[in-house]
Amino acid sequence: xxxxxxxxxxxxxxxxxxxxxxxxxxxSTARDIVGKLGIGPExxxxxxxxxxxxxxxxxxxRDHQVEGDLRRETAMNIKRLMDxxxxxxxxxxxxxxxxxxxTHTNARTRKGKAKPIAGxxx
Length: 122
Hints:
Radius of gyration: 21 Å
Largest sheet: 2 strands, antiparallel
Distance between the termini: 61 Å
Strand content: under 5%
Helix content: 40-55%
Number of helices: 6
Strand order of the largest sheet: 1-2
Shape: elongated
Order of helices and strands: EEHHHHHH
């Protein structure tokens, strides 16, 4: 099992798909990495040599912010908005949708399970 950026990537999948298991690398970024290193699109992780895995690891470390660093930066950005007490920061603080979605109905992902209000029925 290959370990890249602190993540065990699955061995029986194609390299492009397996790289997407790393937080911060999506399909297009994975395709770019594999293309730059000259690894065939049909190659599986189990078929890679140790040298190729090392090249992939170095390319990711050099060119991309992934896993812990990316999560930390995202959390710091949200914390900055909350400390500023700007509109987006207040929405984060209250646990409501940040990007202008309606909240009268829907928004259950951010608000959580619906809480019944006593005496509401008429």
